[in-house]
């Protein structure tokens, strides 16, 4: 009976290795892309925010506020932070699989 249980656990561990490896590589790639995109989006949000302030003061308050909202969404605090949260949840899934299978 113990031998059968050992074989089943070993089979589960062998089946879980590719899943854990794929999730690990996926999170590494995603966090790398998030790091680069946050830098680029940070620069873009600065330009759009400055443009939004200029439009807010000189041309149209409504368009200026729209540009400032877009600058916030593009900034590293906006959508990239939501993407980082989502990737961290995938990483939590990987850790949960590892803990359940490997103890």
How are the elements arranged and paired?
Layout lengths: L1 H57 L2 H14 L4 H24 L1
Provide a brief overview of the structure:
The chain starts with a helix and ends with a helix.
What does this structure look like?
The protein has 103 residues and is mostly helical. It is 92% helix and 0% strand. Helix 1 runs antiparallel to helix 2 and helix 1 runs antiparallel to helix 3. It starts with a helix and ends with a helix.
| General shape | rod-shaped
Alpha plus pi helix count: 3
Structural class: mainly alpha
Oligomer: single chain
- Estimated radius of gyration: 23 Å
Q: What percentage of the residues does DSSP assign to strands (E)?
A: under 5%
What percentage of residues falls in helices of 4 or more residues?
over 70%
Ranges where pLDDT stays below 50 over 5 or more residues in a row are none
Helix/strand order, N-terminal first: HHH
Mean pLDDT: 88
Spatial gap, N to C terminus: 21 Å
Give the biggest beta sheet.
none
By DSSP, the count of extended strands is 0
Please supply descriptive tags for the structure shown above.
103 residues, mainly alpha, transmembrane
């Amino acid at each position: 009976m113990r031998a059968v249980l050992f074989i089943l656990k070993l089979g589960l561990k062998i089946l879980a290795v590719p899943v854990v490896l794929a999730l690990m590589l996926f999170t590494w790639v995603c966090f790398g892309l998030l790091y680069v995109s946050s830098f680029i989006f940070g620069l873009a949000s600065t330009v759009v925010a400055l443009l939004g302030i200029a439009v807010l003061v000189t041309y149209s308050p409504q368009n200026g506020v729209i540009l400032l909202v877009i600058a916030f969404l593009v900034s590293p605090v906006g959508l990239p932070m939501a993407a980082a949260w989502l990737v961290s949840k995938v990483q939590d899934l990987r850790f949960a699989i590892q803990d359940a299978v490997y103890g």
